[in-house]
UniProtKB/TrEMBL annotation:
It comes from Ktedonobacter racemifer DSM 44963. One of its GO terms (molecular function) is oxidoreductase activity. This is Nitroreductase family deazaflavin-dependent oxidoreductase. It comes from the Bacteria.
Amino acid sequence: MAKTYHAPLFVRLANVMSTTLLRAGFKFTGFGGYHIYLLTVHGRKSGRPRTVPLALLEHSGKRCVACAGAGNWVLNLRAAGEATLTRGRRSETVMARERSHEEAALVLREEVKHGYPFANKFGVTVHSSLEEFERAVVGHPLFELERKGWQS
């Protein structure tokens, strides 16, 4: 069984604050100009909705989300295959497709070249080889999110 990632306390506190502000209708942009969304996915065991704030990557016209480890929301998203993205007062249902390590490495390499602020979480730099990117994404899943429909 894969070891789950547990975020440090300061990250969990920042997530609570960000979630509260985003639910109140604030729209804000994270480090490097990445838009922050709320991702809500149903728990794989409880079935209850779980929400986490995330920065979405735009790559070749597609939206992706990368994560620093296989946390519970990642395991829930794998099991559910779909989630709800919320920004401001608008929500949309999205289908999630986990990308292969090779695809994820290419996306991450492009994002790092364009100044992806969380590259240090993956242990890579602009000068890293493709093989280093492929090793880095093994424990860091990347999902492509495709719009399924709008909600009110």
